[in-house]
Structures are given as structure tokens and as C-alpha cells.
Amino acid sequence: MQKKGDALAVKIHKIDLKQQGAIVTIPEEGFLGDKVKEARTRICDIETEEVKFLNLNLPLRKMIGVIGVATPEKTATGTPGRHGGNMDATVITEGVTVYFPISYDGALFGLGDLHAVMGDGEVCVAGCETPGYVTVEFESLNELAPPWPCVEAKDWLYIIVSDEDVNKAFYEATEVAVRALQNALKLDWHDAYMLSSIAMDLEICQLVDPRKTIRAEAS
Amino acid sequence: MQKKGDALAVKIHKIDLKQQGAIVTIPEEGFLGDKVKEARTRICDIETEEVKFLNLNLPLRKMIGVIGVATPEKTATGTPGRHGGNMDATVITEGVTVYFPISYDGALFGLGDLHAVMGDGEVCVAGCETPGYVTVEFESLNELAPPWPCVEAKDWLYIIVSDEDVNKAFYEATEVAVRALQNALKLDWHDAYMLSSIAMDLEICQLVDPRKTIRAEAS
After folding, report:
1. Helix A189-199 and helix A166-185: axis angle, to 10°?
2. Per the CB < 8 Å rule, is A40 touching B194?
3. How far apart are CA A119 and CA A107, in angstroms?
4. pTM over 0.90
5. Are A12 and A97 a contacting pair, CB within 8 Å?
6. ipTM score of the complex?
7. CB-CB neighbors (< 8 A) of A23 in chain B
8. Are B12 and B97 in contact (CB under 8 A)?
């Protein structure tokens, strides 16, 4: 059985979405919550390569909002953290592998909160929320728990960090990334720090949950 | 003459870099400044498509760190703001047009701080700092001052906002972007807010100056 300290690798083979999604505004919710006067729902048709919002066609960008493993303490599904959870990372999509640190025996994986399209930030508190099915494949890696969820895509690696204070999340992600560059390339810390400044991008996942989520990415 | 309230459009035709750049660490500087024990300089060779850092080859990503117009009050070159300045936006590169709000008669454009490569965040406080020449073309647009510098690339539009508090910068950029979507597409505010949540990405420019710089981007 998977034990604390192991990593769970989850390969995302396929995201099959239904043909309709919804996006909402809710008073007091989202990044401009103080300006939202009305609860409103818009239904969007999902086509093979596009999402229809009103009379606009947006490119389909399928992604998984909530994905993670269980924690020893009670954790709300809507809360992101080291276990994963509601990270709302647009990079978690078909073809990538996500690595989670296991902190509860058995891992107890779960996912949900599928989006047909969402922007980095998820500023109104919702993407195009769409029901669907996801096909995944698991592997457990003995004693290889990463400090935070990591995503391996074709040409990119991402470290995904969440914190109430977005600056602390950026600091933590940078520190982890510099250590990772240091170990992977046998650099001393100062050279790894310089390299992170020219080869790593800090980007936003979501800014609308009590814990914000960001990512460090490098190719 | 260009007057307060006009926009200055600056088309970046060409960035010609010299063949060497430098990157540094400085104690107390950068995002992990508290961990920097040593001032160190690394010289990087700049080739046609690559930058050499130690034994690593990084793709060349030419950009302009400081670019802007004059302000009525004294402003340090290292400070970003509505006038532009030290925004360190990786998207300001060959082929784009940058629009600045003019607040001082005559505009008094300037640029510098060229980088051969830099990551979003510029975490160690430097990119690969490289001397060079930039060829630009100006146009002034009567009474069309944008609220913040904007960048027009082939398929993307960016709004670039700076503030001491990165959360305030994100809030301001989102508000400006929602208003822009509202006006451009004749949407009401709530629909524009939803659209910004699925069609706009919030990203980082730099996190290491006293004023942080971020961008909202949409295609």
C-alpha cells in the first residue's frame, strides 16, 4: 500500500467532457467580488475544438480543477495545498503526469471540477464548469514524495504551490525550484539561483480561493 | 507636440544585441535575497539563437526591460508605473507595439535594460543583461492615453500594471481588462467579468522591484 513519503504519479490519459458547461457570477465572489451585483449563470455549448460563450467562440482548453490525494487532517475539497486539491492549474490537462506527495496511507486519490476553458487567475471564481469523465493511470513511487504537486508535460516541468499569501507561494516555489535545479544539474546554489532567473517562469493558477495557487515552470 | 492625454505608440522593429551578457547575484537582492551570501557575476555568450550559461544552452528570448515616457514628477529609471519604466515584461520584444499614456508634454521616450533571456519573475533581480541597439518607430495618438502601458503582439494583447502590492496590481489589471472587454464587445459588466475568467490570463512580469509588475493577457 502507498505510504506517507511515497509519491503518487497520475497520468492523465483522456478528459471527455459533456456538451454543455456553465459559468457563473456570485456576489462577493471572485477577484472583483465587491463589484458583483448579480448572481448570473451562462450556459456554454462545448464543441470539438471550441466553447461558445454568448456569440463568442473560445478555443477549448480542457483541464482538471480539483485533483489530489487525502490528508491526515480534514481538508475541504475547495482548498488547495501540498496534497493538490483545488489548484485550478490550466496545465493539468490530457497527456501530463501529476506527482503528488502521499501523506495518508493508501493515497486515496480523487478528482473533479472539470473546465472546458479557464484563464490563469480564474478571476470570476469559475471556469466553464463542465461534467465529464477522466481516464487516469496510477503509479506509486517509493519514498519519492515531492514537496509540492509537480506536473510533467511534454517539454515542461511545473511545481504548483498554494498559500494564503501569494508572495509566500512565489517564494516557496522559487526556493523549491532553485534546489531542484541545483540537484538536477549539480550547480551551486548561487548559479542555480541565477539560472532560475533566466530559465524559469513564475505564473498564476488561481487567485480566488482563500489559498492562492501559483506555479514555477521550466522547460 | 505630444500632450498629456495622448498615447505614444512604439513599434519595436529590431533588437540587436552584442555578443556577451552578464547575470549577477547580489546579497539581499532578488526574491530569495535573504539567502544570497555572495556577489557573483557570470558572463554569457550570446549566439544567433541561444544564450550560453555555464555549460547550458538556453533559447535566446530578447526583450526590453526598461521602456517608457517621462513623468511630471521625478521617477527613478528602476521604477515601473503607468509611464512604463522598469516593467521587465518578457513580452516586450521584436515585432510588438507598446502604447504608453503620455503625462508630460513631448512624451520624452527612453529605453534600456536589454535582456538576451529572462524568466517571468526575474527572481534573482537580473536577466542576462546585454548591451545592444533597438530600432523603434513612433506614432502619437491624440487623446487616446490608455490607463496603463499596453502591448499589442501578433495574436495577443497585454495590459501591464505595477504596484507595491502584487494583489492590487492584479485587481487593477482585472478591472481594466473587464472594462476593455465590456467596451470592445458591447457586453454588460457581469458577462465581461465571466469572459475575463475564461479568456484572460494573469501573468507575472517581475517580482523583485519595490513595485511589482504583472500583466493581463488575452488573444
Report:
1. 120
2. yes
3. 29
4. yes
5. yes
6. 0.95
7. 194, 197-198
8. yes
